[in-house]
Amino acid sequence: MNTNSCESRPQNHAKFDRKSELKAFDESKTGVKGLIEAGVSKIPKIFIHDQDKLDDYRSASGDSNLSIPVINLEGINDDSARKYVVEEVRDACKNWGFFQVINHGISSNTLDEMISGVRRFHDQDPELRMKFYAREESSNKLMYNTNFDLYQASVANWRDSIYCCVAPNPPNPEDLPQVCSDIMLEYSDKVRRLGFTLMELLSEALGLNPNHLREIGCAEELFFVGHYYPACPEPDLTMGLTKHTDSAFITLLLQDQIGGLQTLHENQWTDVKPVPGALIVNLGDMMQLMTNGEFKSVYHKVVAQKVGPRISVAIVFRNMSQTLYGPIKELLSEENPPLYKQTSLKDYVSYVLLKGLDGKPGLDHFML
Ligand code: OGA
Ligand code: NI
Questions:
Q1: CB distance 159 to ligand 1 below 6 Å
Q2: Is the CB of 302 under 6 A from ligand 1?
Q3: How much is the average pLDDT of 90-109?
Q4: 144-178 confidence digits (pLDDT tens)
Q5: Ligand 1, atom 5: closest residue by C-alpha
Q6: Taking ligand 2, which is a single-atom ion, which protein residues have CB atoms under 5 Å away?
Q7: Is residue 160 within 6 Å of ligand 1 at its C-beta?
Q8: Residue nearest to atom 4 of ligand 1 (CA)
Q9: Which segments of the chain does DSSP mark as H helices, in order?
């Protein structure tokens, strides 16, 4: 194609071209990894972000000594240690929306094997991964693609992912890719149990009965996401994952030792430094809504890098039934009237996808 004629084209034509480029890329079914395998040294246009947005995203990180709290869960069965942990959790949820947990009971071997499992999936032959390439989520089936919002977002990110609903009905091992089925099931089960503990700690941090969040279904449904961020030949032109907040209750995130995740803390992008053996916990929009703004769902993003692949696994605690969630009654008072409308998470997620990830916070639309 002649670049000059392309530049003089009217806007809607340019948009049409982008659509067909997206489609051609999507139909390759081999993801960003497929581009690397084809030996690209320049990233395709569909991945190139606006420079002013990138500048905003890359604006000098804040105080490099500042980082999200690391909370030691050892001894939470002891009353006084637990009280202290609950205070730390409360403080982290109010001020950061993010924290890391250590001594959480999941062994480093399991964590390492989970990262390796996701790596094995994306590193296997294109014909083997292609079989899983899809855009329609279906229960108990693993889905593989590049950017769940490839066609909705204004620009694509340098990242491939696998997704699978793993609770309440775990998939059959034979339906999962052989290279990662065992560890996906083992890891998801362990994270589910850790999630129960975290829901108790969060409930206590809110001054509620320890079972409160679990009883209203916040640890029912788990969605597994295994991200693979290939090394990028032109990292200054793109992103690994655009600035966003998570929509659901909480996310438990496992990252490898490469780094690249940043959270927006007091208006400064702050690195979430890899801590060996740790899991990252972050709160989603629904938790901010339910706590009437007491706990925060904060912006985060992943930069693209020359080094890679970077691998991470997010387990999202969600509930996609019709259940409605609103500010928790026990937390409301005359001085603390409800700030948000109630909604189902399903409707909330549909709204956020429609609106596009990059822009105003989705919760704004649900304010009273
Ligand atoms: C996410 C997310 C961060 C990462 O999946 O929502 O923010 O490090 N992931 O991959
Ligand atoms: Ni996220």
A1: no
A2: yes
A3: 98
A4: 999 999 998 899 999 999 999 999 999 999 999 99
A5: 314
A6: 246
A7: no
A8: 312
A9: 3-7, 11-27, 31-37, 51-58, 79-95, 108-123, 126-130, 181-205, 212-215, 285-290, 345-355
Ligand 1 atom nearest the C-alpha of 161 is: 5
Whose atoms come closest to the Cα of 227: which ligand?
A: 1
pLDDT of res. 65? 73
Distance of CA 299 from the midpoint of ligand 2 (Å): 8
Q: Each residue of 254-297: pLDDT tens digit?
A: 999 999 999 999 999 999 999 999 999 999 999 999 999 999 99
pLDDT confidence tier of residue 61, bands split at 50, 70 and 90? low
Domains defined for the chain, CATH in brackets? 50-320 (2.60.120.330)
Distance CA 338, CA 68 (A): 28
Please report the pLDDT score of residue 356 as a whole number: 72
Cβ 255 under 6 angstroms from ligand 1 = yes
- Picking from 202, 195, 212, the residue whose alpha carbon sits closest to that of residue 328 is 212
Give strand pairing partners of 167.
222
Structure tokens at 49: 């972000």
Task: Find residue 315's DSSP bridge partners.
Answer: 224, 252
Three-state DSSP at 178 gives coil
3-state helix, strand, coil in the chain (%, to 5): 40, 20, 40
Contact 302, 229 (CB under 8 A): yes
Full-model pTM:
0.94
CB 33 within 8 A of CB 119: no
Q: What is the pLDDT of residues 10-31, one digit of tens each?
A: 445 555 689 999 999 999 999 9
> Cβ(215)–Cβ(277) under 8 Å?
no
Return the bridge partners of 163, or none.
Answer: 143, 225
